[in-house]
């Protein structure tokens, strides 16, 4: 089914216009505002092009038409050219110019991100969570918002009787991104309340539409069963307004997705750094100029009864207003460099260990069941929580049975399977968080996380920092890691060093059942993105030497704050006093290699289990190093350029004067993958015997 919307006819004066005159006047005033802003930026290039920016010239009509449909309870995901959407919802030129110039009072980011990259949480306005440069990446978080609204609505958790809509604005060139297809697939699969607004000006940067695609977005989405679609002339405000109203009304009523394909001219530069005259010929520029939205709406105003002198007066008023706004912004204060570190993370409410780690009458539990029980407790106590990923729903409950029974207990609306879409699994949590849903998601194996890295880096990790704390993203991402005997090259990897190079996320790696349960709950309550690395070889304590990963199960209130290491094994006091001890700093499977290796050196080896890799318990590390003055950092990852080597370097730098030996490191061989054959796997990875040899070297240094 299609919602038919013809392109507007050229003779607006003969058209029956059913839009209030005040709406037409408001649209024209804002079009003129956007135009004068673009003129001002070009006339003052020395100042305004210090930081790269784009304007909405040519796109004003469709953007204002969309903005006028948005209600304060709605959500929007604009792209970098959507300055007129921002003006249309009530943002002032001064506010946008503060961002243009990187000023302190930029309401979106405090001078941290580009012009036209909003983060808005303001009473009476639609919510606009942080987004990256929005060349397709915003489609997944935006669809995640719609997915979150769908979930909350289905659970009766939405306040009031409103029917929120998400609008996701995309340039047509970005629709070729694979992540856009993932988003649209989920939108039709779950019937999500979202409007995909595609603004097609037939240009990428210097590439034309014909170079980039075999079909336009309207034709493309014909393959998504259940996606309504509409074409509009995006240069005609009247037709665009009527089309966008119809689209929003459809989504509010039917709670399903629609795509609006709007053709527009590109009248400005791609950006201030890529100017139109560098790559566009006179013919192309003249053809686009014929579709300028401003003369079209000016004609509509006259058809509605406005006099020429009134229109000219409005234009003069806008010109003076924009000039005064520019002067204010130019003289505004710059950010204080001392604030540069603010808002890396939002403060967590979990700052101390609570509950009983070993309650009376407790039975021992394996790690995989401790995780299952933790998620069960969370779902039971927090109706806003949901859990999804590949194969975690239905009767299987995960390939490791880590979600067994949860779908049966809580229903397919809360615990469900996704397609093979790691990008959507990760990125949708940003949208979920923005609307108040709290997602726990799973990547089936660490080796499959790579398609989701774009979302983790560009959307999740930067949101809190670039929105100045307005939009921290609560996201708990479970990732089974590590070798467990014959898993082969795509089911055995460890990925922590890659993750730890992504600022703005937390990384947790429990080594036993009690920590698994306590850290899982802390990760859920943390308002920031947390990646939970769960070692497959420890899940069931079936790998020889890992029996102690099975612990007494903590009570339902047990919680362990992130960023606190735990001494898993102490050295004897007398040995330490005699300077005959050493420290092993490790995590995950490394704890058990170190335990087994230390049996030869009874009382001489302390094992510090980091538990959380970021934020790291640096004070705990330093205190432990000072107790022994000799340290080995042990990892399962290939050693070269790893987190372990980085940590060892930091210890060497800050503890140099107290060390009695170089800080040693040990890990897997520097190979691109773990072989399938178990003997080859063993040859690559650390073992208790190999670690024992390292300890002997260190203790005898």
Automatic annotation (TrEMBL):
GO biological process: branched-chain amino acid catabolic process; response to nutrient
Key words, A-Z: Oxidoreductase, Thiamine pyrophosphate
Keyword RNA-binding tagged: no
Top-level EC class as recorded in UniProt: oxidoreductase
Documented EC number(s): 1.2.4.4
Domain (Transketolase-like pyrimidine-binding) ranges: 365-541
Cofactor(s) listed in the protein's UniProt record: thiamine diphosphate
UniProt key word Lipid biosynthesis: no
Pfam families: E1_dh, Transket_pyr, Transketolase_C
GO molecular function: branched-chain 2-oxo acid dehydrogenase activity
Main function: E1 component of the 2-oxoglutarate dehydrogenase (OGDH) complex which catalyzes the decarboxylation of 2-oxoglutarate, the first step in the conversion of 2-oxoglutarate to succinyl-CoA and CO(2).
Protein name: 3-methyl-2-oxobutanoate dehydrogenase (2-methylpropanoyl-transferring)
Gene source species: Roseivirga pacifica
UniProt lineage: Bacteria, Pseudomonadati, Bacteroidota, Cytophagia, Cytophagales
